[in-house]
DNA sequence: CAGTGGTCTAGACCACCGA
DNA sequence: CGGTGGTCTAGACCACTGC
């Protein structure tokens, strides 16, 4: 039997998680079957129930097990057919890949009207709309283009600099009286418009990833819409589902 | 000051999380600034440190705060510019939308060779490759098409039925000696090939979402590759980032 | 009813950080 | 050095499941 080394640098709850995971992967604990109870695990590995629970919650987070009050904790059916894609803001992503990020402000305009798709989303022009558009580059090559529409209201004078570097939700928070607290994003594939294709150095009609982001206030009023188009050859989303490693 | 109601059905750690979140959203705790220490919070709300920690870990999971050992717990910069897309298997997703799922097996073949992109991913034909292809429908309308390639090894007789209904990783586990434990997925936009477009009832060249999934064994050997193409008008990924609600 | 997971407490020791 | 978060313990009460 594997034992817990209390002098290791990796804490017991983590060691236990690795042990249980190993037993699941080796078939000692099978999908659909219950794990030993928390108390039993505590006795077996000489750990307090609290520690056992912390370990189990770690495994549950990763979707390997799931607990049912009053019944037990069960090994989940393996579901490698899941994928989790995390999109952070462009700068963070590119830095992780050690690429040089660049933004180029293409257009800033005050508008009276919203494009049709924005109206369908329930956004209203109120006192007007501020539109801007940026080109996103990595190592000086165009990767994506974004179009943003935000409610305009009692705006302080806007500085071009801000559009270059600040996050959308921040800009809205600063320049309007609205505070976005919820964000919904939809990811699809589309054909590039002539306008976008030009800036992205691709052909009109080429496939692009389209990310549409809508920011809502606390009372569910949409106050900002951003639409991103990414070159599919230079930008993709990656999901990695893998087991715990032995050490941290 | 908000108080913790210990007789409520929503547990204290959750109530506290909602209180702290509210204070963050109302600006009482500002981004970049530290929260009161865990001990202070415990004193203020008459909760044990353990409970306070459970609450903080909840907020940390949601990216609202982050702890730094020896320094404190800090309010994160708001990052609504993040998106998290979770893709489950097709059946689960469609059921959630209350759509009638259908699979149609289009092709099953034994192959000696792998397509070029699979070789680039480090997969080797070994004793041969089993290829199959399914059409995914929702309410009888074509939504996606998937192509799967798996290592073939000492296979038991394969049943067409299985290809219809079982998850890819399960099929591999059953029909080979390989057990997939890691999955990597890449999401991009592409133009539909003539073959795929035909089945999807779209035009060749139309944009589609392309999901490529590679399954690896414990020793990092790729043993299965699945490529999905989804009609972009009938399939999209959605991410929702929103604050805690008052009640559970 | 006995056994399970869900929550909470009070207290302890540690590693880390900054003055 | 004192204060912070990170971890662990031993014990408690609860709500839920199944017999």
From TrEMBL, chains A, B:
Q: Which domain of life is it from?
A: Bacteria
Every copy of the HTH gntR-type domain together lies at 10-78
User: Which protein, by its recorded name, is this?
Assistant: HTH-type transcriptional repressor NagR
Matching InterPro entries, A to Z?
Answer: Bact_HTH_transcr_reg (IPR050679), Chorismate_lyase_/UTRA_dom_sf (IPR028978), Tscrpt_reg_HTH_GntR (IPR000524), UTRA (IPR011663), WH-like_DNA-bd_sf (IPR036388), WH_DNA-bd_sf (IPR036390)
Q: Which organism is it from?
A: Sporomusa acidovorans (strain ATCC 49682 / DSM 3132 / Mol)
Q: Which SUPFAM superfamilies match?
A: Chorismate lyase-like, Winged helix' DNA-binding domain
Q: Per its UniProt record, what Gene3D superfamilies does this chain match?
A: Chorismate lyase-like (3.40.1410.10), Winged helix-like DNA-binding domain superfamily/Winged helix DNA-binding domain (1.10.10.10)
Which keywords accompany this UniProt record? DNA-binding, Transcription, Transcription regulation
